[in-house]
């Protein structure tokens, strides 16, 4: 398959039925000194992937590292009945005792926690993902005074947030918002739990209910958006004081490479 690292998205929302929320705990009750983390990447099918662990007990998902989009999402079982098999078992939502399905009042993935003025006049916000207002608006001289507003349509029904993503290469997915404890590691689960589980943090992602295009048969379970935006994993770790600065760096090679969060890694 062809490389699909730089995917561009357009957001809209669809209605979903809610599931009862559960208690989620914040791992900041165990103080961890802010530090720089480096994780191995997997190279497969022309794309590089990171290993994410979600929930309690943790479930592993292999995700495309996408610097051109902003959201993280993967199939959830049994909600995604038409999702095909990928490298990992599907994430079983009800198996995590810490998962919480975001209500309409808690929607995060359609919000931008920065000034709308900045979004319209600074092309770097949001990366090159194409989400939000038309790129033609960026750099416009017109003053817009609506800071910290929803930049994307947000339709909810019966207290559940729902999102739909379309990529310019033709793929798409539907999902609803979930927050759970999340951390990165390697494919070695025992080492990952021992070295990285203590650094988990609450993070909101899309629990996919339907996928099309490349998402149907790809190697990866889902996608991890890394563009410059609020509500990415880098932003979540920075807000929870797990990393010293809101930055990341990537070193890629044909065998995999590494992802460093909170700073820059050595070559």
Descriptive account of the structure:
This protein has about 270 residues and is mostly beta strands. Helices cover about 10% and strands about 30% of the residues. The protein is built from four helices and 14 strands. A six-stranded mixed barrel has the order 4-5-12-6-11-10. It has a three-stranded antiparallel sheet with strand order 2-14-13, with no helix packed on it. The two termini are about 30 Å apart. Residues about 1-30 and about 120-150 have low confidence and may be disordered.
Strand content: 25-35%
What integer is the average pLDDT?
77
Assembly category: single chain
Order of helices and strands: EEEEEEEEHEEHEHEHEE
Jot down its keywords.
267 residues, mainly beta, three-stranded antiparallel β-sheet, 4 helices, disordered N terminus
Task: Give the helices and strands, then pairings.
Layout: E1 9-12, E2 37-40, E3 42-44, E4 47-54, E5 59-66, E6 72-77, E7 91-92, E8 100-101, H1 116-121, E9 162-167, E10 172-185, H2 189-196, E11 201-212, H3 214-217, E12 222-225, H4 233-239, E13 248-253, E14 256-261
Parallel strand pairs: 5-12, 6-7, 6-11
Antiparallel strand pairs: 1-9, 2-14, 3-4, 4-5, 4-10, 6-12, 8-10, 9-10, 10-11, 13-14
Summarize the structure.
The chain is mainly beta and 267 residues long. Helix content is 9%, strand content 32%.
